[in-house]
Amino acid sequence: MTELNRRKFISTTGTLAAAGIGHSTSLLASPHPHRNSSSLLGTSTPTNVSPVHIPKGKADSCIFIWLGGGACHVDTFDPKRVGDPKQKNKKPGSAYRKILTAIDGQHVCEHLPNLAPRFDKGVIVRSVHHDVIDEHAAATNRMHVGRPATGTTQYPSIGSMVVHERPTTSAGVPGYVLMGYPSATRGPGFLGSKHGYIYLTDTKAGPSGLRLPVDVNQQRMARREDLLRRLASQQTEQARSKTMDDQLENSLAGLKLAGPKFMKNFDLTSESDQLRSSYGGEFGQRCLLARRLVQSGVRFIEVGFNLNFINGTGWDTHNEGQNNQHVLIQQLDKSVAALIDDLEKHKILDSTLVVITTEFGRPPEFDGGGGRGHQSTAFSSVFFGGGMKTGQVIGETDDLGKKIVASPVSIADFHASIFHTMGIEHDTHLYDGDRPVPLTDRGTPIKELF
Fold first, then answer.
1. Are residues 303 and 366 in the same domain?
2. Gap between the Cα atoms of 32 and 24, Å rounded
3. Is 3 in the same domain as 150?
4. Do residue 245 and residue 347 come from a single domain?
5. Of 166, 171, 301, 358, which sits most exposed with the smallest number of CB within 10 A?
6. Do 343 and 399 fall into the same domain?
C-alpha cells in the first residue's frame, strides 16, 4: 500500500469515526467465511456434549428487557406474604399484595394488572440464581456473558453470541441494537467488533453515531464508500491486519446504516398517537422501537429500563428507593403488555422471544431505611412468545423467596434456553484464537419450555 493511499485510508476512516460511523462498535453481523475452521477467531464447532433431545425453537429475534439495578422478585413476579418495613421488627415479605394471573393458581404483584392476564403467552422462571452478590457490575456481566470473568479472556455477551450464530439476513440492518449506555459487558469480546452493537440513549434522536453531518449528503457518502472499497482492494492480504479489516468492514456497514432505509425505523411519529400512548413513556417508546426493529430484521435488541429519575434509584431499591418502586413496576406492566399485544397483532409474537431479566433479586427483609439489599441465590426472569410452551411457572422458592426449593436454573441454563429458542445449538464451541470456548458454561435448555 503506497504512503499516499495509506494517508487517504487513515483520513477517510478518521472522518467516518468523527461522524460517528467508525469502528468502535460493530454495525453488521455477518457469517464467518470459515465457520468450520477452529483456528480462526470467532468460528464455532459443535462440542462432544450429547445434545438435549427436545424440539428446537424457531424464534427469529430476541427483545432482551434489562431491569438494571436488581429488580426485587418478591415485589414483582414471585410475591409472598405482605411484609411491613414500618414495624419495629420490620416484618419481612413482599411490599405489595398479589393478584391472580392467567396461569392457574399463580400470582404476581398487584401492580402488574395488565401483564397478569397475558401470562397465557408467558413463562415465569422463579429459580434463576448465581453466586455474585454485592457487585452490580460483576452481576450484570455474569447475566450477559453467562460465566465468571477471567483476566485472560474477554467473553462475548449473549447479544453478540446470538448474532454470531444467527447473522441477520436483511441487507443494511444491524444484527444487534442496544437501547442504553454502552459497556464491554454487552460487547462482542473476542468475537470482534463486527459482532458488537449500535446503541442509542434516546428514541427520538436514534443512534447519534449514524446521523450524517449536515454538509454530507448521500452523494458524498457514496463517494466515500467507493474510496474505501478501492483502498481496500489495493492492500495485499499480507499487509492487512484483523483490526484494519474490522475497521473497514464497520465503516462500510456504517455508510449503509446511515441511509434513510434503516434510519426511518426511528421515526416513531409514523405510528398512530393511540399506539404510542398505549406504550407509555420513554421505556415504552423503546419497546415500540424494538418492535419496529424486529420487523426490519434486527436479530437481538436489548432494551434498558432503569430510569433513575422516576423514583430516584431505579431498580436498586435500597433505603428510600423502595418508596416509589411501584411506579417502575407500573410502567413495566403498561409497556410490556402493549409490546406483547403489538407483536401479536403483527403476527410476530411466536417468532420473537421477549425476555425480562435483571442482575439479581432482593431479599424479603427490609434494611434500616425500609429498602432492600441484594440477593442472587434466588430471583425471577420472564419469557414471552418465542414459540415456547407458555402459560406456566418454572421453579419455586420458599415461603419468603430466599431459597430455591424446586427446579434451579443457572445462568448457563438461562442462556442455553434463549439459544435453543432461537434455533442455535447451545452445545457449540466458539474459538478465541485456537482456544475453544463453549457457547454456554455447561448450560442445558429448560426442557419444560419446549
1. yes
2. 20
3. no
4. no
5. 171
6. yes
Grid cell in block for residue 44: 464455532
Do 160 and 284 have their domain in common? yes
pLDDT at residue 240 above 60?
A: no
The count of residues in the chain is 450
Q: pLDDT by residue (tens digit) across 2-24?
A: 444 444 444 444 433 333 333 33
Closest to 190 in 3D by CA, of 164, 208, 216: 164
Separation CA 248–CA 9 (nearest Å)? 9
pTM higher than the cut 0.85: no
Indicate the DSSP class of residue 342: H
Do residues 145 and 253 both lie within one domain? Answer: no
Q: Is the pLDDT score of 197 beyond 80?
A: yes
Which residues neighbour 251 within 8 Å (Cβ) at sequence distance 6 or greater?
12, 13, 16, 21, 22, 23, 228
Using DSSP bridges, classify how beta strands 379-385 and 122-129 pair: parallel, antiparallel or unpaired: antiparallel
Q: Is the same domain home to 369 and 357?
A: yes
Q: How far apart are CA 415 and CA 425, in angstroms?
A: 11
Q: What is the pLDDT of residues 72-110, one digit of tens each?
A: 999 999 999 999 988 778 899 999 999 999 999 999 999
Burial (CB count within 10 angstroms: exposed 0-12, middle 13-18, buried 19+), residue 392: middle
List all residues 6 or more positions away from 243 whose beta carbon is below 8 Å from its beta carbon. none
Q: Read off the CATH number of the domain in which 105 is found.
A: 3.40.720.10
Paired sense of beta strands 404-406 and 409-410, if any: unpaired
**pLDDT tens-digit profile of 148-187?**
988 889 999 999 999 999 999 888 899 999 999 889 999 9
Rounded Cα distance, 130 and 151, in Å: 20
Residues 177 and 236 in one domain: no
- Report the first-to-last Cα separation within the chain, whole angstroms: 54
Spatial separation of the C-alpha atoms in residues 274 and 282, rounded to whole Å: 15
Domain that holds residue 13: 1-30+219-257
Q: How many CB atoms lie within 10 A of CB 229?
A: 12
pLDDT: is 235 or 340 the higher one?
A: 340
